[in-house]
Known about the structure:
Blueprint: H1 5-23, H2 34-40, H3 50-57, H4 64-76, H5 81-106, H6 112-119
Helix pairs in contact: 1-5, 3-4, 5-6
Amino acid sequence: MPQNCRPNSIFIAVLVVCGVLLYFNNLYVPFVYDDLMQITGNPRLQNPTGIADAVITDYRTNRTFQNLTFAINWALTPNSPVSFHLFNNLLHIVNSVLLFLLLTAFVKVRYLAHLTSFSS
């Protein structure tokens, strides 16, 4: 393993562990606030053809990826806050790691990628 890859691997592991510790306290929280409108109050998610319908024609938002994940999640585990929160937590952690990798590839300022990915 090259010398400069080891610190990046260690930092990615730290990012993942911190993400788990920070985000996973919400797994058993019920749907609240905007979840009620976007998930439980959205009839397009609650029918078998809702995936395409929710993604393409949702009048509430133009968030295609969010609507897609909500529709798939509802199809697999209807009305389960745990699965919605788990998937959302995993997306946050993966995005932090991807941001770190992108910044380490393009930004030459030492530790800028570390600080920025922790704040995401």
